[in-house]
Amino acid sequence: MVYRKCLAVLVVLLFVGFTVSGAEKDNEIHVPDWLDSDEPLVSSRVSQKDYPYLVQWIDRHAKPAQDYMIQLFDKYQVVILSEEHNVKEHKDFVIDLILRLYHEAGVRCIGWEFSPFAKNKGLEELINAPNYDEEAVLQFARDCSPDWNSREHWEIIRAVWNLNRSLKPGSGKMRLVGLPHDYDFVREMILAKTKPINSPEFRDSPEFKEVLADAMKYDTSMAQQVEKEILQKGHKGLVFVGLGHDWTQYRYPPEAIFGVDNKPMGSLLKEKYGEQVFQVRALCSADPSFMDQVMKLRIHEWVGFNMQASPFANILVPVGKGAPNVPWSRLACGYLYLGPRASFHRNTPIKGFVTETMFRKYKQYYEVDYGRSFNSAEEVDEYLQQHRWPRPNR
Hints:
Structural class: alpha/beta
Helix content: 40-55%
Number of domains: 1
Oligomer: single chain
Strand content: 5-15%
Number of strands: 12
CATH architecture: 3-Layer(aba) Sandwich
Distance between the termini: 27 Å
């Protein structure tokens, strides 16, 4: 680690350049001309001459990524960490962090998006079983989703089981709980792809209103479960959800979601619990590409820092279709850099995830969602191996 930091300093010095004529002169780092502006900044205004200043700021204020996450629990009861669903490294980071969360941060509960809270009893049995039951975990995953064949997501169950098995008798166990309600996303997907969903006539139909109301309960149900399972119990908890559910300072404009003013889970929790809740975003494909170039000068060291107090705060970041770019500080209170995007991998698909029973039950869903016909469970499974988790945007 010392070698890596020394090498990073050397790279910065070479990048900036320095001169010695007669007596040695102090090396001055260019301060970006946009730094004191409160106006949102397009990322193209960040030039290479600004990089050394940004590196210097990170050197002074950032911490190693795991240390940053652990130390947040000194101040906050709940830390929300968002992920890109198809990026393997986001799950690997959580898996590698679990022992430290328990032993150093005092975390006793992990809440996640990937199973409904109605299945929490079964999840509790899996993480506290005398022996790790891989087939039972796989069946649990199948019961939660017809196509969530991501090995890394379900390996979090194994990581929590490993921790709990290592604890001394009488020690409090780590809990893993699902947060959303038992949301019928299969019905929603079929509806969205087979009906004229943007037509005024259909938007006024009872069928559409029912499905939309169910979808809009998603973040509310997750916030309620975080409150019930973590905050009201007085526990410390990590909440691991997809991008967008984590936001505490931003929400999609109503015109982007059928005119509904829907608050993300993070915003609902922040409004009620204030400084007990903190949100962290990991590097994702929507983030400006210059971040990788800045971090290259630090040998791509994994770090975390508070975004809102950083020079990156006002730089505009894409949000998604139908929404304008917004300052980074509205999307991230804390930020994790987990290596260059070029090093990211797609999730590892679980071979044999789709069973014959699932094929019979979800055939219409598979065909509608993936836009092609299927003749067997094996055919669906093979297709998911190749296409379910796209390669991360690099």
